[in-house]
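Below is one such protein, fold included:
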Amino acid sequence: MNYKEIKKLVKLLKEEDLAVLSVSDNDTYIHIEQKNSGTVTEQSSPAFEPAGTEAASSGLVEITAGQIGTFYNQKDENSDETFVSEGSKISKGDQVGFIEAMKVFNDVKSDVSGTVEEIAVSNGDAVEFGDVLIRVRPEEA
């Protein structure tokens, strides 16, 4: 499967408003998942909470991976500068990292303002859709 064929599949996923598209041929398997469009649906599995939802027991908001790939918290490959660290104050819409998949870099942004309590994955870790990346204590309103 070449780049143009994959690009057509991504276009189909968006045009048909599909959540998941899996295709295979003789030697290739492609699995594409579309990032949540902001709608939160109830899940039967208590282990998964959609991005930006509040963990009931701790009062923390979890920022989760919207796709499969490699999570990076460092701004550049050869830099020690990170997007956020534990204790950082963040605002809604701030970039807290990015996920790389097939040389495409997708920003991970916060859905809430508050203080970073925990970074659940290390720089360069492989992540899957729904994995918790960062836990944030929301600001008091």
